Every structure is written in structure tokens, then in C-alpha cells.
Backbone:
């Protein structure tokens, strides 16, 4: 089968190169992929499908068994033989191979001649499997009518009922399934079989999808081919099986349908095929090409979501360009390209449609921004994916926020607070009233800090209510209310309602306008503990922001217990190196009180951190306690720099001080905290 097309999937570049060289030298057309996701993209994008797929088992993020199982969901691809390519005998799992749709194993240690012989054999299988697609299931032997007459006389079944019944429904009769299958075998002069295991199945003889759809299994037999079927009256199926044998002797065995179905319900099947949801059924009822219902598109979307979670991304961006779409992730605050992943517009539009269906958005509306959300379990985590779409000059853009709804809140010290700060904030959280305000820029981790503080604020004697837009994480001990502007459940109306619900603790997702500021301050001043967030650059700067929202200095001084300012900084990976401070670094450090620092940690890079030198982020905090003196300064309209200067000179730890501590203890690099230090200097303390 010269000029046959073969797709080689292997994350090992040397292996791909060698195999491609052997195949191309013979005259085969070779295409390569290094991951499951790239495989789905190639198959979705091609006009000519491969005749054979060579698939590595051990690959990162998604192994070969899972890739193969997902390929079987496409009617176009399920009849292409898949050979699992492996270096270790221990990786050969025949059960997984059959259930995922594989046809054979091929060792990476095989000689060139052995390799090419196996390829030739499976290209012949590929030709035979293509003929199986022609099965229309519309020809039933006249013997079935005679069998029904036999049943009528033997079991005294109503004649009219029997005449109207077709084969699949014959098992609905009040006859034991095993007995009925034995009767069919006897009537059709064939043997009955009641016991066989998955190990008895002949790998690579028939496509898995064909076997499951037609309730047929090829069984191993050294002397002749054996096929187990449940319908001895299916003339077309038996004729196709005869063609598959190419004149060899073969035997048809009969069993009840449940025996064959149970093979496909093997526990391993569930683990390999992975998660499906109710949405898939909705999609399959639509036009696949228009609405992203093609199984390859579904697999691409599932792979993007799963790989993004494994890479610890917080957001997924699908961005349209002039001639293509690109995929980018936000990891540890930075945007990175997703494996140089680019899509043509046709495929990208189907991917966007799939995501919009999952998010219960209007897939035909492309001219207006939309929001949606859906939930998925990935690697044991219950995740919420919040989708935002917007029209651009080049097409729709999609951003997906990934939210782990079941993750337990971290302790404040784990977030990055010092021991002293943590003790102080925990004390504030247990007090009965006033406001704890967490401030920072967008994406600085304010919501994460709020969740941790709520853990300390909750106990069985308190009623806790949260108001959010939208609800992101589950807080078991709280009553969580969600803002819904379309249903007139606005911030103002919900907050007013909350005040009538007798709460002890109120968490307001964000103080964003005059009404939420007014209600929050009023609640904090009248016996409630209020925990909320605000966009501000520092703890003292929160005073100015509240003034902008028409809250008086007097009201601020009465309502506020504490303002916690925070920012996020990338943590150095454990592969970091420690070096002595050079002259330039000493000059920078001396401007911020770091003259005594003589060593710095710097990024190196390893496989664990994907050679970036950084892994994860840590919070840098400033906790401003509104004691009697600070409250008086606020009431008397002292300036923000004066308040901060007093706070620092009286033992307070500013955000820049704590940034410098992260450098000293080798948690962060000087390069990464420099922005925090420069921002502090701009307040011009004297």
C-alpha cells in the first residue's frame, strides 16, 4: 500500500525522526505529532485522513490509551487501525488496548524489518476495515420469521405480538436471555458460548466501535477464526465477517447480547474514555460542523481544558488574528503561548462554538459580548470554567477563567503573610464588628485572601452571608448570594436584603460603587463584621478610594478595623541558585534599606518549573490597623503619606518591607520584587 498515509504520534523527537525516515524511504506519506492535543488538531484540520496511526503510550498530560479512546468517538477515525508504540513490555496492557480501540503493539526495540512488516500487516487491516463501514443493518434472514413461529408454538406467545417484534426486541419477551440465545444457536445450527473474558478477544481483528455497535467479538483460536455474535439472523453482518476472513475457515458462535455488552462495560473502559457530560448529548443532536459537536473538536476542547489545569493556568485565552487563532495561557501572572498552538479559523470557530454551548451561551450571537460558565471534574478536582466572549475586528475572542471550587482555603502564613501579620488578622476576624478591607490591583489575589479570612471568622455561633458576582468558590459555612443584574438582583437590592437576614458576618465580593460602599460602611458601623475588597494601590490609599465613593473621613474612621494591602510575586523554584550581591544589585538594594543583604537567590530553570526558574506565586502584604491614633489621623484629614509615614515610624511593616524580606529569605528574586519597591519609593517618605 505504497503512498499510504501514516500518522506518527510520539513525544520523543528522536523516535519520531527515525520512524519517519524508515517509512518515508519505503514511499509512505508521514505526518507527525508530539502530543494528544496536536494529534486532534491535525486530524480535525486534514482533508485526507491517515490509513494507520502509530501511537506512543507514555506521553505527558495524556497517555496513548486515552488519546486512542478519544479518537474512537469520531465515526471518521474509529475505523483507522492504531498501533501502540512502546519501549517497555510492562506498558503493554491488552485490556486497555482493546477498550481504547487499539489494534496491536509494536516495540520500539524492534528491528527495522520487524517494524516495516508490522506496518504492512496493519495497512492491509486498514483496507479491510474500510469495507466494514458499508454495513447498513437492513437485511435480516427469513429464518428469523420461522424462528418466531417456533417460539409461538414452544412458548405459547401471542402471534400478533411476535409478528410485530424485531430482533433487538426479541429479548424483551418473557423468556430467559440465556435460554433464548441457546434456542437461536440450536435453530441456526451454531454453537452457543456463555463464558469468555476480555483476554480471549483477538486484538486488531475488528474495530472496537464496529464490535460495540454490532455486538460482535473476535475470539482467539489457533486453528480457525471465531466470531461471537448475538444475532444469527443478521445476514449482512455474517457476510461481512466472511469477507474479513479472506477465504479462511471461520466459526460463528452465539451468545446473549448482555455477555458482549459487559465486555465494553469493563471498569477500565470508564477510566480510559474519561468524563462526559449532558451537554454532549445536546451537541450531538445539532449539526456537528456548525456547532462544534464533532468528536475531534470535543476532544480538542477537553484536551485544552485538561492541559491548562495541569499547567496550573488561571486563564485560557483564544485570540483571533488576521489568518489564524492562537491559544495562550496565564500562568503565575504571565501570558505564555500554549505549545505554539495555532488554529485555522474554521477549526477555531468550532472550538468556540463548543465552549459557548458548554457555557449555555448563544452560539449564533457573535456581535455582542456574552458570559457563561460550566463545571468539570479534572484529575479529581471540581472546577468551574467562567467564559467571557467578545467581538473583535478579526473574530470572536474567548477568555476562560479556571476556578477550583473545592480547594480548601490556605492559612494566612501559607499565602505569604508574616507570622505577626497572620496573628493580627486572625484576631480581627474573630471580633464582632467593623470592616476588614482587602485592597490591591486586579489579579492580586484579594478573593483568595478573603476566603482564608472567612475561615477564621466562621464558627457555629455566627450567621455568615456572602454577596458575590459571581459565586466562585464554595464556602460550606456560609449562605452565598449571587448578583444577577438581568433578574434585577443588583448589588444594591441584595445588600439591602442581606441587612434584613440577621447576619453576624457579611462578605461583600467587592466595593465597586457608592451604594455598596455606603451599605458596607453602615453595616460595619452597626454591629456587623464586614469583609470586602477594594481596588487600591496601598492600605492607606484605600482611604482616598473610599472618599471617591462619597464615604466621609469620619465614617471611615468609625467603620474600619483594618486595611490589608497585597500584591503577588513569583516564587523561585527549588532549582534556584544563590549568588553574592554584585555592585549594581547592592546599589539598588541600598535605596530600599537592603544595604545588609549580601546574597541573592536567582532563577535557574528545570523540568519541574518548565525551565522558567519560577513556580507558583506568593502574597506580599501590608496590614494597617485602625487603632485610636490612626483613626484620629483619618478623622482630622491628614494626608495619605503622613498616615503611612506614622505607621512605618511606629513599627508598622509596609508592603515594600515585606517584599524585601521575601528577597532576603530567598523566596523571590530581586528582579521580581523591584516593581513593589519602586512603587513604595514614589510615596516620598521624609
Residues:
Amino acid at each position: 500500500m505504497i503512498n499510504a498515509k501514516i500518522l506518527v504520534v510520539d513525544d520523543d523527537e528522536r523516535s519520531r525522526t527515525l520512524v519517519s525516515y524508515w517509512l518515508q524511504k519505503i514511499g509512505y506519506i508521514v505526518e507527525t505529532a508530539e502530543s494528544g492535543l496536536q494529534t486532534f488538531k491535525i486530524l480535525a484540520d486534514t482533508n485526507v485522513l491517515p490509513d494507520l496511526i502509530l501511537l506512543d503510550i507514555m506521553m505527558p498530560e495524556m497517555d496513548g490509551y486515552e488519546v486512542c479512546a478519544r479518537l474512537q468517538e469520531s465515526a471518521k477515525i474509529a475505523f483507522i487501525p492504531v498501533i501502540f508504540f512502546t519501549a517497555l513490555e510492562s506498558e503493554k496492557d491488552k485490556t486497555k488496548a482493546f477498550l481504547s480501540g487499539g489494534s496491536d503493539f509494536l516495540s520500539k526495540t524492534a528491528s527495522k524489518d520487524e517494524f516495516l512488516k508490522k506496518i504492512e500487516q496493519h495497512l492491509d487491516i486498514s483496507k479491510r476495515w474500510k469495507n466494514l463501514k458499508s454495513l447498513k443493518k437492513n437485511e435480516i434472514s427469513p429464518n428469523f420469521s420461522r424462528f418466531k413461529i417456533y417460539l409461538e408454538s414452544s412458548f405459547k406467545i401471542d402471534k400478533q405480538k411476535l409478528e410485530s417484534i424485531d430482533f433487538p426486541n426479541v429479548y424483551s419477551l418473557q423468556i430467559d436471555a440465556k435460554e433464548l440465545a441457546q434456542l437461536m444457536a440450536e435453530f441456526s445450527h451454531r454453537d452457543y458460548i456463555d463464558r469468555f473474558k476480555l483476554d480471549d478477544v483477538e486484538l486488531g481483528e475488528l474495530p472496537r466501535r464496529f464490535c460495540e455497535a454490532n455486538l460482535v467479538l473476535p475470539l482467539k483460536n489457533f486453528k480457525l477464526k471465531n466470531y461471537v455474535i448475538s444475532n444469527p439472523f443478521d445476514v449482512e453482518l455474517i457476510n461481512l465477517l466472511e469477507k474479513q476472513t479472506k477465504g479462511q475457515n471461520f466459526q460463528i458462535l452465539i451468545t446473549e447480547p448482555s455477555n458482549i455488552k459487559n465486555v465494553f462495560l469493563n471498569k477500565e473502559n470508564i477510566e480510559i474514555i474519561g468524563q462526559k457530560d449532558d451537554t454532549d448529548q445536546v451537541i450531538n443532536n445539532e449539526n456537528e460542523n456548525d456547532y462544534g459537536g464533532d468528536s475531534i473538536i470535543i476532544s480538542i476542547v477537553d484536551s485544552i481544558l485538561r492541559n491548562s489545569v495541569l499547567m496550573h493556568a488561571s486563564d485560557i485565552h483564544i485570540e483571533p488574528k488576521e489568518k489564524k487563532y492562537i491559544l495562550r495561557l496565564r500562568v503565575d501572572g504571565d501570558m505564555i503561548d500554549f505549545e505554539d498552538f495555532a488554529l485555522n479559523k474554521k477549526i477555531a470557530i468550532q472550538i468556540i462554538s463548543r465552549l459557548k454551548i458548554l457555557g449555555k451561551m448563544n452560539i449564533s450571537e457573535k456581535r455582542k459580548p456574552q458570559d457563561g460558565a460550566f463545571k468539570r471534574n479534572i484529575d479529581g478536582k471540581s472546577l468551574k470554567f467562567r467564559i467571557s466572549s467578545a467581538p473583535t475586528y478579526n473574530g470572536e475572542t474567548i477568555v476562560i477563567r479556571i476556578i477550583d471550587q473545592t480547594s480548601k482555603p490556605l492559612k494566612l502564613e501559607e499565602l505569604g503573610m508574616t507570622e505577626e501579620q497572620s496573628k493580627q488578622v486572625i484576631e480581627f476576624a474573630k471580633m464582632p464588628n467593623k470592616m476588614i478591607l482587602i485592597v490591591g490591583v486586579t489579579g492580586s489575589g484579594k478573593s483568595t485572601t478573603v476566603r482564608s479570612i472567612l475561615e477564621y471568622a466562621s464558627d457555629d455561633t455566627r450567621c455568615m452571608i456572602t454577596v458575590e458576582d459571581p459565586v466562585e468558590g464554595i464556602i460550606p459555612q456560609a449562605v452565598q448570594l449571587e448578583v444577577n443584574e438581568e433578574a434585577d438582583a443588583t448589588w444594591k437590592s441584595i445588600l439591602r436584603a442581606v441587612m434584613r437576614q440577621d447576619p453576624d458576618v457579611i462578605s461583600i465580593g467587592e466595593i465597586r460603587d457608592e451604594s455598596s460602599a455606603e451599605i458596607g460602611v453602615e453595616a460595619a458601623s452597626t454591629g456587623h463584621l464586614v469583609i470586602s475588597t477594594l481596588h487600591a494601590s496601598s492600605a492607606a490609599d484605600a482611604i482616598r478610594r473610599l472618599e471617591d465613593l462619597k464615604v466621609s473621613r469620619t465614617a471611615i474612621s468609625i467603620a474600619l478595623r483594618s486595611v490589608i494591602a497585597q500584591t503577588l510575586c513569583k516564587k523561585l523554584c527549588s532549582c534556584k541558585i544563590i549568588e553574592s550581591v554584585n555592585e549594581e544589585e547592592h546599589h539598588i538594594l541600598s535605596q530600599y534599606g537592603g544595604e545588609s543583604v549580601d546574597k541573592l537567590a536567582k532563577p535557574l530553570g528545570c523540568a519541574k518549573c518548565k525551565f522558567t526558574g519560577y513556580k507558583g506565586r506568593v502574597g506580599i502584604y501590608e496590614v494597617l490597623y485602625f487603632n485610636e491614633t490612626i483613626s484620629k489621623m483619618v478623622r482630622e484629614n491628614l494626608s495619605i503619606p503622613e498616615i503611612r509615614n506614622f505607621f512605618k515610624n511606629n513599627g508598622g511593616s509596609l508592603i515594600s518591607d515585606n517584599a524585601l524580606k521575601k528577597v532576603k529569605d530567598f523566596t523571590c528574586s530581586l528582579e521580581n520584587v523591584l516593581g513593589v519597591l519602586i512603587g513604595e519609593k514614589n510615596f516620598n517618605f521624609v
About this structure: The mean pLDDT is 85. The chain is about 40% helix and 25% strand. The first strand starts at residue 5 and ends at 9.
